[in-house]
């Protein structure tokens, strides 16, 4: 199971080296990440405002659009194993984006553009960070989906 080497995972898919046992590991990992994110969002007391709703709706839109684009990319390539590929490739892509975003988030936190007190109100900068996170993640995911489905 790869946590960082997306290109190695792409190569394994292209060479049909990803087994069902490996696929299950990625699915379990994805479920754990989704659960952690959902749980953390539910446990943070906050007052919702227009930025919360804008970020939520825009992220939903981007997610649907991104999955559709990945599907079209996969279909234009070899058209194989779309669900398995997108789930498995999402894990190392997600980890890379998190590592990239942590310093940016900390800079925003340090200069006071966002707050981390558990009850802060979402502001424009939180919304911008969230939306840019989604765009970069989906762009990178689509890029790797294109690499894995490309016909030789």
Summarize this, please?
This protein has one domain (6-149).
Q: What ranges have pLDDT less than 50 throughout 5 or more consecutive residues?
A: none
What Rg is obtained from the alpha carbons, in whole angstroms?
17 Å
Instruction: Please give the count of helices.
Output: 5
The amount of beta strand, in percent, is: under 5%
Helix content: over 70%
Q: What separation lies between the terminal Cα atoms?
A: 25 Å
The helix/strand order is: HHHHH
- Tell me about the largest β-sheet: none
Class by helix and strand content? mainly alpha
**Shape label:** elongated
Overall structural domain count: 1
Number of strands: 0
Mean pLDDT: 82
How does this model look, in words?
This protein is an all-alpha fold and 152 residues long. It has one domain. 76% of the residues lie in helices and 0% in strands. It has five helices and no strands. It has helices spanning 6-14, 20-43, 50-76, 82-110, 124-149. The longest helix is centred in the middle third of the chain and has 29 residues, at 82-110. It is elongated. It starts with 5 loop residues before the first helix and ends with a helix. The model has no long low-confidence stretch (mean pLDDT 82).
